[in-house]
Amino acid sequence: MTTDPTVRRAFIHGSLTVALALLALIAGVAADGALRTVLLAACPLITLAGAIAAGVRTYRSWKVDDKWPVWQGLLWFLLMTTLLLFMSVGPTVLGLSDE
Fold first, then answer.
1. Domains held by the chain: number
2. pLDDT in tens, 66-93
3. Element at 9 (helix H, strand E)
């Protein structure tokens, strides 16, 4: 692992965001009724919030000429994770699935 604090902070931010979203996904699959819908809808929202936070960090790092590409890479990763989670749980949340 690197000793660069910017990379370490970005890694921790991304890991915690994805772990929290996956925890909501697992809890949502195990739940029933309205709680299931709420937890499944929270999965992409959690990663979207993490992506927005990474975008803010990207902008702030860019303004002070710091290592902004690290945060931009995390931003794109979290946006793609958001899209993947939305496409996975979207039909269930919107009531389009047979479950």
1. 1
2. 999 999 999 999 999 999 999 999 998 8
3. helix 5-30
